[in-house]
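tool_call predict_complex ligand=S-adenosylmethionine
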Amino acid sequence: MATRRQAAPRRNRDADWDAWPVGRYLAENYRQMHPCDRGVIHHHSAFYRQFAPGALTRTLELGAGPNLYPLMLAAGASRRIDALEPSAANLAYLRRQLTYGPEDSWEPFYALCRALDPALPATLTEALGRVRVVRGDAGDLADGRYDTASMNFVAESVTEDFEEFTALCTAFARSVRPGGRLVASFMERMPSYRIGAGPVWPACPVDASALRAVFAPHTVSLRVTRLAKDHTLPEYGDTGVLLLTAERPGP
Ligand SMILES: C[S@@+](CC[C@H](N)C(=O)[O-])C[C@H]1O[C@@H](n2cnc3c(N)ncnc32)[C@H](O)[C@@H]1O
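tool_result ok
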């Protein structure tokens, strides 16, 4: 009798990240501020406000993509933010924003970030002056290099393989020094997805208990909260957004 074989999960290297549809992704997610962006910004701003202005020497944004607001949020506390990104399309977008100035659509995001954290520089351009765009991926991370690390919609949105998701989260957690802090956001229970009518990108549906299981062996003070599903976004099949903070065990 013939048996039906299940397709192998698509792994990170199986997708063409260089061809990430930057314009379409921005149009669907970041040209306007959505309720879930507000939620992420409030959460991450509270995380960064625990540090004195400029107290962090070097911080990480892993898989930065074309999203500028996590970089804005870090700019109050951090003197240097490494935006690590593998995709040629996203690197080109980030470099254009830093070289020629950010697109106007980012200004409302910066206004909210600065209203929440007056330690942020007066202008978005000044805040982005703290960012270094670095080509690379999670596999390039060295242990203990950063004071804090941030990751938004990356580990669960770049592979269908739960083991690879776990490895990516582990490299993220280990990238901060002992006592260093982590902040992250994840799509909740999102299956593989399309941006517009483009190709299917690999994703790994995760929930709060999966996040706790993956991060608990590497962190203390682990906290996971959630935002309700944002119906103003395209239907990506998610059930909301999960927000995480944690700390690497101290020296
Ligand atoms: C869904 S997008 C999220 C982008 C952005 N962080 C945001 O908040 O919108 C996933 C990002 O992860 C990047 N990426 C893919 N594989 C990666 C890897 N192995 N390590 C780090 N980033 C990766 C992609 O190029 C893309 O920028």
